[in-house]
Amino acid sequence: EAQVTQNPRYLITVTGKKLTVTCSQNMNHEYMSWYRQDPGLGLRQIYYSMNVEVTDKGDVPEGYKVSRKEKRNFPLILESPSPNQTSLYFCASSLSQRDVTDTQYFGPGTRLTVL
Amino acid sequence: KNEVEQSPQNLTAQEGEFITINCSYSVGISALHWLQQHPGGGIVSLFMLSSGKKKHGRLIATINIQEKHSSLHITASHPRDSAVYICAVRSKFMSQVGGGSEKLVFGKGTKLTVNP
Questions:
Q1: Which of A80, A84, A82 is nearest to A20 (CA)?
Q2: What is the mean pLDDT of chain A?
Q3: Which of A28, A37, A42, A107 supports an S-S bond with A88, CB 3.0-4.6 Å?
Q4: d(CA A30, CA A49)
Q5: Which of the residues in chain B have pLDDT under 50?
Q6: Mean pLDDT, rounded, for A14-43
Q7: Residues in chain B closer than 8 A to A34 (CB atoms)
Q8: Which of B101, B32, B16, B113 is nearest to B72 (CA)?
Q9: B109/A109 Cβ within 8 A
Q10: Who wins on pLDDT, A45 or B94?
Q11: Mutate to test the interface with B, among A38, A100, A111 (most CBs of B within 10 A)
């Protein structure tokens, strides 16, 4: 089954404790992206990757890192989480971002609480 | 002003009613997506449009590029249609690493509740 998986689905952590949210897709997609969703603000892009070893900042990259060593995986790293990073996070992928017919596939979301 | 505006923010309907959700945008776009977010949080792509109209079951999406406006219609609404509907536009920008690229810019969503 074609899908985007994220782990963990739920995480409660404390300020400053490094964490990684994993994202994996099995559709051989080139483009992957991370979004956060906050009440009243909607979805905002954190980082994206157009292909292996090619990543770039989105609209709200502060406090986050990413890597794209393999095509299927795009982990989101919070080196020193803070309470303002409490949010619902989504990973998404599409075949490429240059074809107007591409559909975005979203992961199930990770609800992160930073105390 | 947000680049993508949706209306209404909240919508309550009775089962069977015809529903319309509107999306207006202020940037140049290559395509527009309608997404559905279930109460559990998962997001599913319903439509991607670059012109005209698309239909899938009871859902119809239209776009008017000249007016920078799109509508999502639900005919014969049902309680299982209750969800947040999100409009997102694909907008071009200059990437720092790879020349031109596109990104999604999202509206804040319309929460639809359909009562039995």
A1: A80
A2: 93
A3: A37
A4: 8
A5: none
A6: 95
A7: none
A8: B32
A9: no
A10: A45
A11: A100
